[in-house]
Model the fold of this input.
Amino acid sequence: MAFCVYLLGCSNNPAGEYVLFDFESPSELDQLYWNCHTMYSLADKYVVHGSKSLQLDLYPVHYPGFSPKLTKNDWSSYKALSFDIYNPQKDNITIAVRIDDRKYPEYKARYNNKFVLKEGMNHLHIPFNSLITSGTVQKLDLKSISNFQIFMVDPKRKIVIYIDYIRLTS
Done:
């Protein structure tokens, strides 16, 4: 019993938090769906947690972005999704976040939202009570999250952003 308590005390994650992606090793890049016109690399700058972040180079195409392979699909024990994005551009940019609770839902049957990123560090927090579908206005089934994406819609030029510390929080 004392051994279990010791392990819990040594965790790098605060109680009530589950880290989905932290980008600390190249093996995490294998957990991403690779898309044409989006380049992923680990970076030593704009780090919020640990020693690395994920640099995304988003090229001018329809929907460049980040799409990870989820290994945890039951988010029902948590209250929010939080992550950090650094925008090095001098101007604000808009990203979209998509979350699905089933495979291949149409637009109106999934969560879709846009967020404006100011220059510098942006801490995004999406409470799960706000996860409703776009058209049918139903809550997502947090026990069966199948897809999570961060992307841009039709950027006119190459955009670079840094993502770090994607986590579920209580």
About this structure: Residues 2-9 form the longest helix (8 residues). Helices lie at 2-9. The mean pLDDT is 90. Strands lie at 17-21, 38-43, 53-58, 65-66, 80-87, 93-100, 111-117, 120-127, 147-151, 159-169.
